[in-house]
Amino acid sequence: MELEAPQQGTSQPWEDRRQHGRWRVRWWAQIEVGTDLLACTVSDLSVSGAKIQTSRPTTVDEPVRIALPPFGDFKGEVIWTRDDHIGVRFADEEHPRVAKIVASHLNRAPR
User: Fold this and answer.
1) What phi and psi values does residue 92 have, to the nearest 5 degrees?
2) What CATH number should be reported for the domain whose range is 20-106?
3) CA separation (Å) from 15 to 33, 39, 59, 60, 93?
4) Mean pLDDT, the chain cut into blocks of 10 residues (111 residues total)
5) Of all helices (H) and strands (E), which one includes residue 102?
6) Exposure of 47 by Cβ count < 10 A (0-12 exposed, 13-18 middle, 19+ buried)?
7) Could you give the C-alpha distances from 8 to 23, 25, 95, 110, in angstroms and in order?
8) Exposed (0-12), middle (13-18) or buried (19+): which is 101, by Cβ within 10 Å?
9) Where along the chain do its domains lie?
10) Stated pTM of the model
């Protein structure tokens, strides 16, 4: 798994309301949307959410489950869609688990 420093100061056409730092990653995962289970790629991660590339069209507010081997499954909902990418906000109860993943990787030297 690759992990880069949090993204800071990137210009975006919308107001950035993020509460947590984001880390660029390139992690294989699976996303469950409705009854579909598909391969996907997590391209950035924060304690509260993730940017995911997926081939399945989704709608905002759609519940999802993200399986991130070897870390487990995480519940969330789609908060934005753009082309083949979606933004997922993790359920509040998932934040401590995601924080542990982020913290454990911050102690590693970049690869």
Assistant:
1) -50, -40
2) 2.40.10.220
3) 27, 30, 21, 18, 26
4) 45 48 89 94 94 93 95 96 95 94 64 38
5) helix 95-106
6) buried
7) 10, 15, 21, 17
8) buried
9) 20-106
10) 0.77
